[in-house]
Specification:
With about 140 residues, the chain is mainly β. The protein is about 0% helix and about 50% strand. Bound molecules: zinc ion.
Length: about 140
């Protein structure tokens, strides 16, 4: 695996790695659906899978001056299968987190060697000034 640097953030990269650890599979929210209690307007709010907090709507178009009152429609919200794995190169110089989603969640296990292609992201690590590198995988090929 080549050295990953901040200039690579937002770019698609392809790396050869060994899977050092894998976490449990989760369902992550990608979209929440709310109904306005006043006008019954439906509001869709996309969720950021890397944030710990749920994003809720604040106002509804029926009254932009008052804080909205919304009811969550759980059955109309959307989820994605989500799993984090940790990978490193042969001499263990670089270790990063990789996010697997949907049909990729079971593509590799601990100890597997793989070529992983994906977009490199910077995700906040507990504070707003420290970030982790996370590779959001789009393709995984065992090698
Ligand atoms: Zn409304």
């Amino acid at each position: 695996m080549k050295n990953i640097r901040h200039v690579d953030i937002g770019k698609e990269i392809s790396i050869d790695v060994k899977v050092s650890n894998s976490k449990q599979k989760f369902l992550r929210l990608t979209l929440l659906t709310f109904e306005c209690a006043r006008c019954k307007n439906i509001v869709y709010v996309p969720q950021d899978i890397y944030k710990k907090k749920v994003v809720k709507p604040f106002y509804c178009v029926c009254d932009e001056k008052k804080k909205g009152v919304f009811r969550l429609l759980e059955n109309e919200s959307e989820f994605v299968d989500f799993r984090e794995i940790f990978v490193y190169n042969e001499n263990k110089e670089n270790s990063i987190k990789v996010v697997l989603q949907n049909n990729l969640v079971n593509s590799v296990e601990k100890g597997d060697y793989a070529n992983i292609t994906g977009v490199l992201k910077a995700v906040p690590h507990n504070s707003h000034t420290v970030f982790d590198y996370v590779l959001e995988a789009s393709m995984v090929r065992k090698i």
